[in-house]
Amino acid sequence: MKDLDKKIQEALRSEDAELFDEFNAEPSIFEMLIETFRGKHRWLVFLTMFWTIVFLVLGVLSVIRFFRAEETRDMLMWAAASALFISGVSMMKVWFWMELNKNALTREIKRLELQIARLAGRIKD
User: Fold this and answer.
1) DSSP 11-46
2) pTM of the full predicted structure?
3) Taking Cα atoms as reference points, which of 11, 99, 87 lies closest to residue 52?
4) Domain extents for the chain?
5) Percent over 70 (pLDDT), the chain
6) Contact, 92 vs 48, CB < 8 A?
7) How far apart are CA 19 and CA 74, in angstroms?
8) 50 CB burial (10 A radius; 0-12, 13-18, 19+)
9) Residues whose CB falls within 8 Å of the CB of residue 69, separated by 6 or more in sequence, listed in order
10) Do 89 and 55 touch, CB atoms closer than 8 A?
11) In degrees rounded to 5, what are phi and psi of residue 70?
12) CA atoms within 13 Å, Cβ hemisphere of 56
């Protein structure tokens, strides 16, 4: 991948290379997380985070109740509840990471659009 990036940068003119360097910087994971909360669907991200925290708390409480239960029936009930809540947390996290991936893919497509627009402008001249 690095060789391809070098070949692309060598093919670009100097002003295009400066622009490429400006947009080529990959954001850190923290910047990507913050960007998710600023996006068009931020209400959905906040809702997902809220339910993730709720499921996590309920999962921990279910595990605690599981270890405090004295009857087998109660243990099975709390084990099933904790498995359900922890699965819910896992599903919410998978959705969130898919959202981060979608944003990264969109960013790359925008970079390609910019390069194509600049190339089309150069062809017209």
Assistant:
1) HS-HHHHHHHHHHHPPPPHHHHHHHHHHSTTHHHHH
2) 0.69
3) 87
4) 2-124
5) 80
6) yes
7) 63
8) exposed
9) 75, 77, 78
10) yes
11) -105, -25
12) 10
What CA–CA distance (Å, rounded) separates 78 from 86? Answer: 12
pLDDT for residue 117: 83
Tens of pLDDT, residues 21-31: 666 677 788 88
- Return all residues near 32 (Cβ < 8 A) that are at least 6 apart: 100, 103, 104
CA–CA separation, 31 vs 103, rounded Å? 12
Q: Which contiguous run of DSSP H or E holds residue 119?
A: helix 72-124
3-state SS assignment for residue 86? helix
pLDDT given for residue 6 in this prediction: 67
* Joined tokens for residue 75: 């243990």
- What dihedral do alpha carbons 82, 86, 91, 92 form, nearest 10°? 110
Q: Are 100 and 36 in contact (CB under 8 A)?
A: yes
Side-chain half-sphere of 34: how many Cα atoms within 13 Å? 5
Handedness of CA 3, 4, 9, 13 (dihedral sign): positive
